[in-house]
Amino acid sequence: MLREVPQNEIFTILFVICIAILTVAKLLYAKRFNDFIWIISNSNYHKIYSRDLRFFDRFNILLFVNQLINIAIFVYIFFFSLGEKNSYGNTFIIELSIALVAFILFKFFLERIIGRVFDIPEIIDNYLFQKLNYKNYLGLLLIPINILLTYTLTPSNLTIYTFLVFLMVINFVGFLYSFKSYQKLLLSNIFYFILYLCALEIGPYIILYKLFI
Question: Rounded to whole angstroms, how far apart are CA atoms 45 and 21?
């Protein structure tokens, strides 16, 4: 009896692209990259690089592309593990990537517009810079996780949710750092803060999840 061999060529290509992206980032921005990988343990990276606040410099673009690819792979594996093997076609990961780009960019620009409407552009820009950094850091962590799920581990529900909880904890650490940075401001405007969380941090992800389900 022949054993079924999974077709992982597309994932292999994507992993090679991600490793190449990180290699370029490391070569071109060695010091910044070394500072970045310690972002979860200290705030030096934010303090140093928020002085020259640029969202779309080459370093952030490289890490953002890596983040996008790995989130798309992880979400693909997540849906694949929940559904039947033939539930999602070969174009699903492309559709997913396009949807993620549109979703992330729309949410990013909407938050910047809100910052200018309420006359707090500097606060919003710093917050978005911190959030972008932690999302890019998750992109780094997702590379070994996705490789394990693709080539080694069977992507069962337990495995997927274990990694998902781990990623949520890392993301929560980033959220706590941002909260600590603006603690007094947020506590004095707690109603608007809760409204922001529901409308722009929780609601859009629920809508995106329902869309693909």
Answer: 20
Q: Residue 133: which of 26, 75, 57, 24 has the closest Cα?
A: 57
Cα separation, 90 vs 88, in Å, equals: 7
Please write the tens of the pLDDT for every residue from 66-79: 999 998 888 888 87
CA distance 166 to 87: 27
- Cα 80 from Cα 136, distance rounded (Å): 24
Distance CA 79, CA 121 (A): 37
Query: How many CB atoms are located within 10 Å of the residue 160 CB?
Result: 20
Side-chain half-sphere CA neighbours of 31 within 13 A: 3
pLDDT digit string (tens) for 182-202?
Answer: 777 677 777 777 777 776 677
Could you tell me the two tokens for 42?
């200290």
Q: 206 — phi, psi (to 5°)?
A: -65, -45
Query: What share of the chain has pLDDT > 90, as a percent?
Result: 19
Indicate the domain borders of the chain.
Answer: 9-212
Specify whether the CB–CB gap between 97 and 68 falls below 8 A: yes
**What is the rounded CA–CA span in Å between residue 213 and residue 184?**
39
